[in-house]
Amino acid sequence: MKQPAIVKLPRAFYRRPTLRVARDLLGKLLMRRWKNEVLVGKIVEVEAYLGEKDHASHAYRGLTRRNEVMFSNGGHLYVYFTYGMHFCCNVVTEREGLGRAVLIRAVEPLNGLRTLAAHRGFSFPLSTNDLRSLGNGPAKLCQAFGIGRSENGLDLLGNSIWIGDSYDLSDLQVARTRRVGIKNGSEHQWRFHIKGNPFVSPARLH
DNA sequence: ATCAAGATTACCT
DNA sequence: GGTAATCTTGATA
Fold this sequence. Notes:
This protein is α+β, with helices and mostly antiparallel strands. 17% of the residues lie in helices and 28% in strands. It has helices at residues 11-14, 18-25, 113-120, 128-133, 138-145, and strands spanning 29-34, 37-50, 77-82, 86-92, 100-111, 161-164, 174-177, 191-194. Helix 3 (113-120) packs across helix 5 (138-145). The protein binds a DNA duplex through strand 3, strand 4 and helix 5.
């Protein structure tokens, strides 16, 4: 029995209100062409950052060289470098000029495990712990997928990195909480994750 | 020019 | 539970 083809999310998906995009990204498939295979991770945890009104957002003080991709059209990848060693990636939402995006915080690895493990420095076969540690954090998943400076600004409608639709999300249980790792703006419940999913970032399963 | 803080992680007790 | 690692950015002077 043949599996249905995975459809790339269209521009219109990203151009909707950011909180709705964040919620709807759960269960979708982060995909990257890598040599002769396709790396795939199911998105299980995200956070919305709502532009110049959001005190926790990189866009809070307006457009700068660092955050300029946030202000581009919905459907681009905003990658930033932090703590002197980590990259994190966001999906830009809505329309040009607003500076809104959704941070991808965790994925459940589904394909290309050998490559993802190699990028993370893990040996094969993976222990249960290492399998979870492939993508259960925003910097971890970037390392696993090889996402860094050169992927900043990439169009998710191209054929390098994109997000695929998934065909059956009827069982999806979504939880909504406050965002983590921020000071200002922590009162908003702009973090979403799949309830009970073991690939959500550590100690934040509820 | 200088400097503090950072949308984190790994490793320690 | 705690904290070192590591460097870019943006703010202030």
